[in-house]
Amino acid sequence: MSRIALFATAPIVSVLLLPLVSSAQQTVPPEKVVGRQLCKVCHVSENAVWEHSSHNTKSWSLLDHPKAADFAKAIGVTNIKGASACTQCHGTQQKVRGTLKIAQGNSCESCHGGAGGAGGWLQQHCDFGFGRKITRDIKMADLLADRAKETKEHRAARDAACDKAGMRRSANAFDIAANCLNCHLVPNEKLIEAGHAMTTRFEFVEWAQGEVRHNLLLDATKNAEVPTNWTDELRNGPGRTAEGRKRLMYVAGQLADLAISLKNRATVTSTKRGSLGDEANDRILDLQEELEDHGVLELKPALDALAGIDKKSLREITANDKQIYGKVAGTVAAAARKFVEAHQDGNKLPAGIDIPTKAKGEAYVP
Ligand code: HEC
Ligand code: HEC
Ligand code: HEC
Ligand code: HEC
Predict the structure, then answer these.
(1) Nearest ligand, CA of residue 57?
(2) Is the pLDDT at 305 greater than 70, yes or no?
């Protein structure tokens, strides 16, 4: 068989690079999605974990739930399994040469960002600088051999390029968690009003360490406790531990929750009991307290911005909400990214920060 190029050139799309996950575009832009089958060419074991997770086994089937029609009616959706808000969150929308295809469930790019389109990160994220042609019959072992020889400079440039192209990696702990919450906190006031659930107890370590966990990269028979790419001594030097990683994830998850709750509070029209706004308020108040307790220096800009909000204003909807809460959400996101960068070695965080030990479901081992 001839070695066909794996990735066709995709149509040019303009992508707005927003400081925080945008509310209008709740999930990944369909133009950028290449689809899980391509990821699977190399990430066989990660894919096996995904196949056993609720994102595959349950998410889509909820669209056949007895309440689905009521939810659809509440937000003016007529074709639930078509190009709807429902399939943005219970499926993965992909545009192939102008035609919309909908994959069932939340696949790789729902979390890691769309890999294709103009300037997409797909090719680049596994190009180690030796000119190896990426084809469908490529061997992961060959790639990993290249990886072991990659220069520090090449790697830094590659990581930066992937981040810029919108890839969410383990190193981007805040962004990857904010993306989970942007879906799991269901930022749609009308849906919540109609009784659609939201994940009110989302804690990042707990929710990422169970059935979702797929930290396998280097040894495909092990589902490592925390990301192997992140702990890898060869790449990052010694001293990164699972405990440090979880501590970093824990705080990054709280910051993500705060940022998304502020973003949601910026857009709501009501704060009555059980509403999206009510939930956002509760989270903002709780998280402020929890984050203050950590006593972490880098969080000061976020906490100062938060302290600037008159808490009485939380319950009152005003024309300025978008500006006030939107701005603080941006400040929190910026501080959170700096914090994550400064604490890639989570061991420098105060040991008093307790790491959650619960896990949502069981980690699958291929
Ligand atoms: C041609 C093989 C190949 C394909 C196809 C591929 N990957 Fe990868 N991927 C790799 C290799 C090799 C690495 C290790 C890169 C490194 O060490 O930085 C990797 C690393 C990653 C990482 C971890 C990066 C980090 O720095 O933590 C993520 C996340 C990832 N891939 C997601 C995906 C997704 C999602 C897709 C499909 C859209 C995909 N990959 C397609 C080979 C591939
Ligand atoms: C912003 C993302 C998002 C959108 C939009 C969305 N869902 Fe969901 N949906 C979720 C998440 C996340 C859950 C799981 C919440 C939890 O933890 O219980 C869920 C849960 C559900 C459930 C489980 C039971 C319940 O009472 O909520 C049903 C049914 C459902 N969704 C149907 C729909 C339908 C139909 C639509 C479109 C009209 C839709 N969803 C739109 C994210 C979304
Ligand atoms: C695009 C939307 C979306 C994104 C992004 C997303 N999820 Fe989900 N998730 C869902 C839906 C829908 C379900 C199905 C709800 C259910 O299982 O009740 C689900 C289910 C789950 C479950 C199983 C819940 C249960 O009750 O057993 C876990 C755990 C989970 N998600 C964790 C995560 C984590 C961690 C992230 C980010 C790394 C994430 N999710 C990102 C939509 C999403
Ligand atoms: C529900 C969201 C979600 C989905 C779906 C998802 N991932 Fe991930 N992935 C993550 C998170 C979160 C991490 C980092 C875990 C952490 O922070 O501890 C990660 C880490 C990775 C890594 C790096 C692991 C390491 O050891 O460094 C690879 C590679 C990867 N994912 C590939 C994939 C592929 C391929 C798919 C689809 C088959 C996929 N992911 C689906 C959320 C997701």
Answers:
(1) 3
(2) yes
